[in-house]
Each structure stands twice: as structure tokens, then as C-alpha cells.
Specification:
736 residues; alpha/beta; Aminopeptidase; Glucose Oxidase, domain 1; 4 domains; twelve-stranded mixed beta sheet; two-stranded parallel ribbon; 21 helices; 39% helix; 16% strand; globular
Length: 736
Amino acid sequence: MKKTITFGLLTIAAIANGQQKITGFTDASSAKELQTEQAFDASLSAPHIGETLKELSAYPHNLGSPGSKAVAEKILQKYKSYGMDAHIETYTVLYPTPKTRVLELTGPTQYTAILKEPAVPGDATSGQDNQLPTYNAWSADGDVTGQLVFVNYGLPEDYETLAKLGIDVKGKIVIAKYGRSWRGIKPKVAYEHGAIGCIIYSDPGDDGYSAGDVYPKGAYKNEFGVQRGSVMDMVIYPGDPLTPGVGATKNAKRLDRKDAVTILKIPVLPISYHDAQPLLAAMDGTVAPRDWQGGLPITYHVGPGKATVHLKLEFNWDMVPAYDVIAKIKGSTWPDEWVMRGNHHDAWVNGAGDPLSGQSAMLDEAKALGDLRKTGWKPKRTIVYCSWDGEEPGLLGSTEFAEDHNKELQEKAVIYINSDGNGRGFYGGGGSQALETFMDEITRHVNDPQTNVSVYDRKRARELVSAANAKDKKEILDRKGGRLESLGSGSDYSSFLQHLGIPTLDLGFGGEDGGGEYHSIYDSFDDYRRFKDSSFKYGVALSETAGHAILRMADADLLPFDFRSLQTTIDKYVTELTELTDKMRENTDLENQLLKANDFTLAADPTKHEQPPAAKAEVPKLDFTTLKTALDSLKKSADKLSITWIAASLTAADHDKLNKLLYHAEQQLLNDGLPRRPWYRHTIYAPGFYTGYGVKTLPGIREAIEQRNWTEAQEQIGVVAKSIDNLAGYLNAAGQ
């Protein structure tokens, strides 16, 4: 029978006997692949995932601790027991831990913050020794006293509101609510406005009794719970602050700590809402706007006024080992093409949900692959499993590995598939849009444990129910497949996608596992089994989803990339940018008209001595022609590639040539780096400079527009157009 291969959305021949079509496989290899996946699924075990989760979360294991080494060694032995070639790669990284933490209300009343989370009944690990105290890693050392100013969520727009109220935070200490941005943005913006210290707390209106019963009765944050976390300025670069761009090997050249730009310049401390209430209650001055009011039983004031606080922080700035556990199954046909899978193992404390729910599911995948090998199965491509250390303080383990092995990874890595925490609910996937068709096929055939429909269908149903309007609902109904969300930052995929240009997926389940345990001592096995995924069946759902992706990428005859999806996605981003500039132009014109009218009123009334704000500069018409032309070229080349290579019967040499072209294609979208942060080299995706975890698509253009830097915006349009032209030309050559 003639060899036929499905590619993208176009299929030349159906798989014989009505079997499921699999992109990138022949009729014969599709049938074999489905049998392999069925055997893989049979080896997965929800009880076993639960047992692994309980074992690994039994004690604290933050980066640099004895527990971290113990967990890494346990994972190493598991990989080896599954028949994998496994070892630990150790990097030496800077990591601060708290030495002194003092927070005192010094006026008009006195209060000393307790800065401690107590043990609770029914949680076996909440009272353990060696738990990392509540703190923010990469805060500066500092001993400051000042008036307190409430800044809502501490976002740039909140400071605009303060300015309108005539309030300046220069020389003050600010207190901000967790939420609506990555935590590191809050002290960053505070410092830019002249604040000398920053306090962050979880308000019960967002994360506490307003949401539901608090722990241990319910899942939500109790009055003493605190969200630890990194405030490293990761939007400049992630990883060890002392070794930007190079692996933190033992003898690596390092910056002096004072020259590391990702370490903050002011002291920062997270606190509970128990400790926040006396501070906020003592404040006077302007009553906070209605939408700034929180869930505590007080009236929130902005200050500054009589409320003053003393904040003193000192840290141990130690060099510590980061233990990355790397395990391989060598490929039988293309051993130098790597299918990579990763999840971190370090936690702030015990970390049952974050990250061990994902780590335990990933280990069950590795076990199932080991069982397959006992039947004689061998992957065509090399499979690499990575259990990262040091993710929580700033993606340290994965970044140092990626920087250390950058050239080899860019040559060999076909894909990197990431996960992190996992829970009950809906499938969520993000990553390289050329993989949308690939993930649609997988998720249509993974069963949701609660509803007994596919995880694809359950997610689609949720999108329809949640659609904001009829237009959005129609768009979902008209869409032929699902979408992969664009990736910002906050997990270990960042170095692979945004620095090295390796095709990437980030997978997980959640949405019905809400609670307030995040980064606290209450992120425990007892909390997880009660409120997150009591049967551990969503661990199996993650194992099946990621495992099928691993198997198909490892054994595909033709790698299943469809760049038509990428082209349509980028085209949508360009439309968003043109609409953004048009809206800014309309708003600027309206604001300037109002200012002009106000200026006339003041001039007509000599008793008024107010000075109106200066008019904003006009928003120019940006020229997107080169970008749109490049997208037209990309559409033609992506369409041509999808047809040309299906229509022919491919030889083994054809496969080798095309497959290398396909998985190296994403690298054509790299350039010399974004303005003011060259570590981020991808022209389509990056974390936002003022959003942190949140993605900015076409970031060079979008952020220049948002900052009203029109010259840079026009320059970046040319930069992005060039990268898309590069990809179009590259794919066009592949289609010859």
C-alpha cells in the first residue's frame, strides 16, 4: 500500500478501517501508535501517583536544603528503577534565606507582626521543623522606617490614581495587596516611584473568607497564611542573578552581587491578613477609592498620615547547590533528536500542590515508559525527562541547564513539554501555536475523570458558557480547533522557548481546585487530598495528555508542526495592535479636547490659579505594512509546506531532512533580544515588563506602544517583520 502521512489539518488518505487519524504517522504506524498509547495508559495508576505525592511532600525541600537533596536523590532512584539512564547535574547558585525579619507599627499605636504560620489540626506536616520562614526571595537587605501608604495592588495604574489624589510615595513604605500581577511587579513599581520599602499581603476579599471557608475547615487562606515567593526581576532575565546568559557551573564567571540587576533595591516582605489589619486600621488620610476597598472589617485609607512602620530585613546570601535530575531513553532511529519533558521538584515548604502534583504525574509517565520498554518498545527519538531544582526562586535549575547546554539543545531539542502544579478541573494548554492541531488530536482522546467526556470537549463547553458576548461565542463555535495560550513566564519553559527558540508546550489541569495554600506551609498532602484532587485521577489525566504528546513526538514519521496556526495567531496579534493604537488615538484626542476646555474655563475665571495637566502628544499612524507583507509571505509558505510534503511519498532521507527543518523553524523567530532586556530573544512571546508572569505578544512592538515610544514601536515593527520574513523564507525552502 502507498505510504501516506497526515500533516496539519489536511489528510490525503484516511487510516485504514476507520481508525483514528494521527498527524505525522502512516496508516500502519498510526495503528501501532494507538496500541502503544493504550498500553501506556494501562500502566498509569492514580493510587501510585498519590503514593508518590505523599512520599515526596513528607518534609520541607526548598532549594539548598537537606530536604532538596533527599528529594532529588529519591527521584533519581525512581528514574533508574524505570530503566532510564539517569544522573544529577549540579549547579552552584546564589540563594538568599532570611536571617532577620522585623515589622513593627510604630505609630500612632504599637504592633509587632508575628510573621509566622501556626500548625493546624488535621494537617500532619504543618508543624514540622526546618520550614522556610515567610519571606520574599531577592528582597534587598534594609532597615527603614517611614509613613505607610496603601497602594491597592501596586500596579502602574494605581500610582496614576495616587497622583490624581495628590499622594506621593517617595520616602514612604507602601503596602500592597497580592493579586492582579506577579508579585515582583509591586516592589519594582514602588521603587521606581521612590518608596523605601514594600509590604505585600493577601486580602481576604481576594484570598480568604470572602471566597469560602478557610483552612483547615475549607480550602481558602486563613488569617495567618502567607504567600512566600520570588520578587526577582525575571522580566530582565531569569536564573542565577550572578551568571546571566551562562550556566552556573562551579567555576563560572560571576557578577558581583551589587551589579546583579535582577535583585531588588528595597526591602520587601509578605505578611498575612492577620498582620496586615492592625497596619491598615491605623492609617488615616484620604479614604481609598471604592474599588480599592478590601475584605477586612475596616475602612481602608490611603495615607500617608500618622501610621508609621519599621521594616528590617537581613538575608543569608549563600551559594547553594541546585540538583537537576536528568533521565534519558535513547532513541533507536534518531538518537540526536530529543523529546524533552520537565517539571520542577523544589518547593517553598512541602509543596504537595506546587510542584509535586505535577512531578508525581510526570514520574508515573516515566514508569509507564519503563513498562513499555519491557515489552520491546523503543522510541525512535531520544526521550529526556528533567526534574528541575530551584524553580521557585526564579527558574534557576532549568535556566542554568538551558544556558549551559544552549548549543546542544538548539541542535537536538525537538520539543520541551512542561508542567507544574496540577489539580481538579479543566485542561489548560499553552505554547507554540504550530502545535495546536497536534494537541487537539491528543486532547480529543483523553477522558475527563469527572464528566466522562474528552478533556477537549469539556474545555470547549466551559469556553462557551464563559463567553462574554454573542460575538465571542460565535467565534468559539466557528473555530475548527482549540487554541494554545501564548506563554509569558512563571515556570520552567521560559528558557527553552523565549531564549533558545525551542518549540514548547505547558500543560496542566485546574479550575475546580481553588484555595489559599499557595506557597504556604499549608500546601501539604493533607490539603491536596481534601481539596485539590482527592482521587488523584487528574494526575492520570495529566500523565495521559503529556505522555501521549511524548510518545507521538518520539515516534512520528513526520513531526506534526502546522505553521498555518502560527500565522493566523500572529495575524490576530497584529490586528490587536492596530486596534490598540486607534483606540489610544481616539482617547488622546478626547482627553486633549477636555483639557483645552478646562484651560479656557480657568483663563476665564481669574480667581482660579490651578494649572491643568499638559496635553498628551498625538498618537501617530504607525506603518504596519512590512509586518502585514511578511505575514502574507508566511501564509503562502505555510500553505505550500502543508501540501507539498504530503503529496509525495517520503523516503527516510526526506524524513531526516524535513524533520530537522521543522523543529528548528521556531528559532527563525529569534533576534538579538528585546529592548533593555536582550536575554529574551523571541519576537512573538515574552513576559511583560510590568506584568511578570503575564505574556506580552509581539512584545517589542506592544510595549513600545503602551509606553508611547512611537519611534521604538516603528523600529520594532521592522524587527518583527524581519523575523517573520526569515521564517517564511525558511519554510518556503523546506517546501521545495
